[in-house]
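Worked Example 4.2. Consider the chain below.
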Amino acid sequence: MNQSAAGGLKNISRSIVTAVIAFVVIIAVCATTAFAQLAASYNVSITVDDSTFTITTNETEPVEILSQANVKLKSSDKLDVTDFKGGKGGEIRVSSLKTVNVEYGDAIRPFKVYADNVKDALNEIGVDYEKAKYVSYPLSAAVADGMIIKITNPDSVTVSVDGDKIKFAVINGTVANLLKAMNITLGEDDYTSPSLKTKIRENMTVKVYRVSFKEQTVTEKVKPKTTTKKDSSAYKGIETVVSKGKSGTADVTYEVKYVNGKATKKTEVSRETVKAAKNKVVKVGSKKTSGTTNVKSNGVKKKNGFTVGQEITGRYTHYCACGRCGSGTGKTASGKKVSNGMKNPYYIACNWLPLGSVVNIDGTNYTVVDRGGSGLSQVGRVDIFTPEGHSACYRYGTGSCKLTIIRLGW
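Applying the procedure from the previous section yields the following structure tokens:
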């Protein structure tokens, strides 16, 4: 063999060796990758309702693992990853929402639960099944969507809501738990009696009050206001109407509160005047008086043909509490007691005005508390009580006077 041929053979040998080494390297890399992938895989237990299986995966996110296992999650499904840890294993639980009907008495009520067996379903609803005389399914029975669980003879609670009275088994917990279990939703302003925090007890009645608000606009009569003016020419206690005034109208908007359909309260929201009212104008006497100065009005303006503020020309005499002026007992027709020496009570006797009337006589107010002889029946005729005694009656004598009626009766 010549040198040229030997050199060519040598080159071919080097190429073959290089190719073999490359092939070995590739196999080694593939084997390492496969081993790494095999080492990253782990087992995960998946429970869907009451069915459990195991999957080998190298995913770490629960949703990806479920997708790999062809488990499709619904929006209402409940996902529990408490016992799962990504990359290490554990259990992923998926619970689907099911409808369980509870038959109690004459009614069947539906409830949404995630439980897998009857016991857990009743616990989730809140029914105290231990007090029940009969439950139509074993507590260990699997829950099926739409199943009817009949319960008899447990203690009951009554819910009064929306015009109905519903009896149901006692729920563990509070009124709030009971309403939740019975799918009764409260509006923002609704309330219950007893309150939501009250613990449920046997034979309890829970009332639900539905509250709503509506606006109502009505046209209302507006009474005139009263404007008073001082009248220095009239005695205190005398009022004279100068102008009666006139009512107006206004459109008034109220917010009306309804409880279970009945209006219970209304609050004024706005008011718009349609026709303005004209004020009533009254003159109020300011002329000073003595005697009975604290005269309270009784609202009577006219009585027995007499009017408050009426002026009458009359005649006066005086009497005291002695036996010559009367019975001597000191008891008046109105029941008021008088006696000589007492502080002047400013009393008069007359037959023509109601007892309790107040009359101003020449600047002094007197109260009618007594009656007398026929002479006191004449309009304007009065007898003034004199606590100084009989001699003072003679001293003060008789005379003409001007009387002004301040009040009629008590």
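Residues 1-10, 17-22, 27-37 have pLDDT under 50 and may be disordered. The first strand starts at residue 42 and ends at 48. Compare this with Example 4.1 before moving on.
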